[in-house]
Amino acid sequence: MARKVGQIIAQGNRRWLIRVYLGPIKLQGWIFALLRDLQTKASARDLCPKAHDLVFRTPSGQPINPDYLAKHFRSILDLAGLPQTRLYDLRHSAATIALAAGVLPEVVSEQFGHASTVFTLDTYAHVLPHMLDGAAARVEANALWSDGVTTR
User: Fold this and answer.
1) CA dihedral 88, 84, 63, 37 (to 10 degrees)
2) Residue 36 pLDDT more than 50?
């Protein structure tokens, strides 16, 4: 059965366990290879067919409980000597890095499943000011009237 973007594919009895299909996500080649390897290894010992499409599972193949994951994430941060942060904050970091790297807001909005690009821009507006200098330089460099000399 083909999934449709926005389709609820799993729902628990708690509101934060709802899983919605957001469509394909483009990944870097090395990440894709790593995830494919994880999936192949997990499929070889698949004990929970209903969780076959999950990237991260328990050793028995079950979905990972979010509370368990959050608890262990905190201990991993402690072991690494990193400041405490919420697991969900990684999502904000990824969006911020993408925008700072020059990824179009429309693309970030699509990848994160935001309802609109306006929401993405409102949420991550703090990233945009330092991008303005780069934008101004690119426009100036590509202007038809530009002779390579800047005037101020």
Assistant:
1) 90
2) yes
